[in-house]
Specification:
Helix content: 55-70%
Oligomer: single chain
Distance between the termini: 47 Å
Order of helices and strands: HEHEHEHHEHHHHHHHH
Strand order of the largest sheet: 3-2-1-4
């Protein structure tokens, strides 16, 4: 894991969280408590919250208010932001998880689960179809090809379109978007859910497999010295180097080539029969 720098207040945050949990679990009707965010990351600073989810075994608005008050009182005492969410477990089980929820809950730490219901539910909900990662690689990879990483040098991309339209700001923006697509491919290749945007680059450095000189290539891709065509080409070279280094890994892990990515995208994503 790449370490975060700065004033790490995690011990203070853990102390606050433990104090809250000891009070919360004393209430009848609490069936589970989990930590997310900084408490599971091992790092917290002045920009962080104490993120705790509490599950109730039945709908009890009075209990919910009591628990929220505990959180509010501790926030006033400690001057630390406390995000204490309370959920009726039966209703929570019906919710569809978005990408951020999947990532959060795949990293969640179960603190209190006397009946094992929380762990069982999380394990079930984090299961994915066999082709889940493959489909993600195909979609992100196909878009990446469209935007700036064509399978052949003579094929034009969206970046080329904006250069031809004499809008280099838009061309540079397309590189930004293509870089995010590259990140999405790397997370899928490593079978990891996507973190929120604010954490995406940071957590990408901890993936098990990455292109050679990844950090240097990321910095080169992200640096904008001027909105010029020359600087655009420099950024493109760095991003395309990442993609070219990733292609052999994609092929060895999934059997996909740029041509097969397009074929899979048409047949399995767009559901169009080949001519």
């Amino acid at each position: 894991m790449v370490e975060l720098r700065g004033d790490n207040q995690i011990e203070e945050f853990k102390g606050i969280a433990q104090k809250l949990v000891s009070k919360i679990v004393s209430f009848k009707g609490v069936t589970g408590v989990i930590f997310i965010g900084g408490l599971t990351r091992g790092y917290a600073d002045k920009y962080s919250d104490v993120d705790i989810l509490v599950f109730l075994d039945k709908k009890d608005e009075n209990l919910r208010k009591q628990l929220r008050k505990i959180g509010s009182n501790e926030q006033q005492r400690s001057h630390v932001d406390i995000d204490l969410e309370t959920h009726f477990f039966q209703d929570f089980q019906k919710q569809k998880w978005n990408e951020i929820s999947r990532w959060d809950f795949s990293h969640a730490k179960i603190i209190y689960d006397p009946q094992g219901k929380i762990k069982k539910f999380f394990n079930k909900n984090l299961r994915i179809p066999k082709n889940f990662w493959l489909k993600r690689i195909v979609v992100y990879g196909e878009y990446l090809k469209w935007y700036c990483c064509p399978p052949e040098e003579n094929l034009e991309t969206m970046v080329d379109a904006w250069v031809a339209r004499d809008d280099l700001v838009s061309a540079h923006y397309c590189v930004n978007y293509a870089f995010d697509l590259m990140l999405c491919v790397l997370f899928a290749l490593n079978k990891e859910f996507l973190p929120p945007q604010k954490w995406r680059i940071f957590y990408s450095h901890s993936l098990k497999w990455l292109p050679k000189d990844y950090r240097k290539l990321v910095e080169e891709t992200m640096t904008v010295k001027s909105f010029s065509e020359r600087d655009l080409n420099r950024r493109l070279r760095a991003l395309r180097t990442m993609w070219q280094q990733t292609l052999p890994k994609l092929k060895s892990e999934t059997g996909l080539t740029p041509e097969l990515i397009s074929k899979y995208y048409v047949e399995k994503v767009l559901h169009q029969a080949p001519p």
